[in-house]
Amino acid sequence: MKGKLEGKVAIITGAGQGVGKGIARCMAKAGARCVIADFNEKSGRQVAAELEELGSEALFVHCDVTQRASIDSAVTQSLKFFGRIDILVNNAQRAPLTPTAVMDHTDEIIDLCFETGFRGTFRFMQAAYPHLKASQGNVINIASGAGLDGLAGQAAYGAAKEAIRALSKSAAREWGRDGINVNIICPLANSPGVATLLERAPEMEKRMTAGQPLGRIGDCEEDIGPVAVFLASEDSRYVTGHTLPADGGSSMIR
Ligand SMILES: NC(=O)c1ccc[n+]([C@@H]2O[C@H](COP(=O)([O-])OP(=O)(O)OC[C@H]3O[C@@H](n4cnc5c(N)ncnc54)[C@H](O)[C@@H]3O)[C@@H](O)[C@H]2O)c1
């Protein structure tokens, strides 16, 4: 994997912790220069510093993906610093911290899931498009088994993730001739977000791994990162519009 992303610049949203951080670390080890775009300044700066310690160039940009101006500014800052954008990973997402029944979903919960996930991804793709076209780049959007399988207690979150998949497939068709590949990862990994969910609803852990072939929750950097590197590299140049679950076999797409 070493060197597979040499010379490339990756923007990773929500990379201040968890899956985004794992992807950023793995991409940096593969030679990419990473932009850590997160609304949590402390953790985002910390991750950028960690990447520098790995010997990689990194930039933290404060970015709230619910605000178009904030996204535009993140893209401008990335270009100013690195001069190009090759990879966009739309990873930032918020969701209720406890499972919520369909009948208990409020407008606020629905908005939270769609603003951060679906609309944030849509806006970032629009803002980055001309630069990805110039670099013949890659988009990797993060969806979820909660959407693929329609998990109980996660209706708005799962729906936002399925909306991201629909957007990704349309963009893959529209942007293929521009040289931009758009793919989707559905991860399962031990992020701080998942740790909080399991603290509040321990019964979820069994549900996450019951019947799962590999029988464990993955590691953000070791299990999810390499899948993102693959989808950002030349190795996957003939793959677009595809959903790749990195979840120990929890979801098998037929
Ligand atoms: N961890 C899993 O098992 C799992 C499973 C399925 C899908 N996912 C998806 O993977 C992605 C990462 O999940 P995670 O578990 O690492 O989450 P997490 O909650 O641990 O981390 C999310 C990160 O996103 C940032 N963020 C949140 N809202 C933001 C905003 N408006 N603007 C900018 N940054 C924002 C947070 O500051 C944080 O750094 C999400 O899209 C999530 O839905 C994760």
Radius of gyration: 17 Å
Structural class call reads alpha/beta
Provide the CATH architecture: 3-Layer(aba) Sandwich
- Strand content of the residues, in percent? 5-15%
Quote the average pLDDT: 96
Number of separate domains? 1
**What is the CATH C-level name?**
Alpha Beta
CATH topology: Rossmann fold
Largest sheet: 7 strands, parallel
The tally of helices reads: 9
Spatial strand order of the main sheet:
3-2-1-4-5-6-7
List each distinct ligand once.
nicotinamide-adenine-dinucleotide
SSE sequence, one letter per element: EHEHEHEHEHHEHHHE
DSSP summary, beta strand count: 7
Cα shape: globular
- Terminus-to-terminus distance: 29 Å
CATH-assigned homologous superfamily:
NAD(P)-binding Rossmann-like Domain
What is the share of helical residues?
40-55%
User: Are there runs of 5+ residues with pLDDT below 50, and where?
Assistant: none
Question: How is this structure best described in words?
Answer:
It is a single chain. The chain is an alpha/beta fold and 254 residues long. It has one domain: Rossmann fold, CATH 3.40.50. It has helices at residues 18-29, 41-53, 68-82, 107-135, 145-148, 155-175, 192-200, 203-209, 220-232, and strands at residues 9-13, 33-38, 58-62, 87-90, 138-142, 181-187, 243-246. The protein has a seven-stranded parallel beta sheet with strand order 3-2-1-4-5-6-7, sandwiched between helices. β1, α1 (18-29) and β2 (33-38) form a beta-alpha-beta unit. α1 (18-29) crosses α9 (220-232), α3 (68-82) runs parallel beside α4 (107-135) and α4 runs parallel beside α6 (155-175). The chain starts with 8 loop residues before the first strand and ends in an 8-residue tail after the last strand. The mean pLDDT is 96. The structure holds nicotinamide-adenine-dinucleotide. Nicotinamide-adenine-dinucleotide binds at residues 13-14, 16-20, 38-40, 43, 63-66, 91-94, 116, 142, 144, 187-189, 191-194. Nicotinamide-adenine-dinucleotide binds next to α1 and α7.
